Amino acid sequence: MDIRKIVTIRERSFMEGGVHLQRQVGKIAVMAVVRDPHPGTYVEDVQAYIDFGHELGCRLTGIAVEEFGREQIESFGKGAVVGADCELEHGAAMNHVRFGNAIRTTLGYPCKTIIPSTITRGGPGAVLTVPLVHREANLVRSHFDAMTVQIPDAPAGDEIVVVAAFGCGGRPLSRLGGLSKDDIVGDGIR
């Protein structure tokens, strides 16, 4: 499959609600615009999409690690926007299992939680809000977050935008209580 381009959106927060932040808080999304080789066509075997998802997971996560630093990444999420002529299942196949496992492997530390995902259909400039959770435990409330992304010229009708998103520091002024990242045991659920 062909990648037309890779787009990175990086943000750092210095202030929230009028309060200057005392710790580093930020997010990064790395997105690949991929040409779907079978737009408008039903394909029974989606293994090629699944396999390509592994390559994308390694590549997109590698870019995030270079930009943000491996140790800084505390949360993650993923998503896809399929173009009008593409099947949702093609985006899902690229986004699940091998893509997620590649993210975990490339990060290089224990990531015990399910990586949340969202997949939708849209045209150029479609907005996607990617959910984020703590990499080691879903129940760390300080890291219940999201990152909204958009590429003005993608996806075209025959394209799929595949997104890997990461956060450091959780929400800027989190104070909901619950499990803290310092109190995680196992997967934080049992």
TrEMBL record:
<protein>
    <submittedName>
        <fullName>Amino acid synthesis family protein</fullName>
    </submittedName>
</protein>
<dbReference type="InterPro" id="IPR035936">
    <property type="entry name" value="BB2672"/>
</dbReference>
<dbReference type="InterPro" id="IPR009569">
    <property type="entry name" value="AA_synth_put"/>
</dbReference>
<dbReference type="Pfam" id="PF06684">
    <property type="entry name" value="AA_synth"/>
</dbReference>
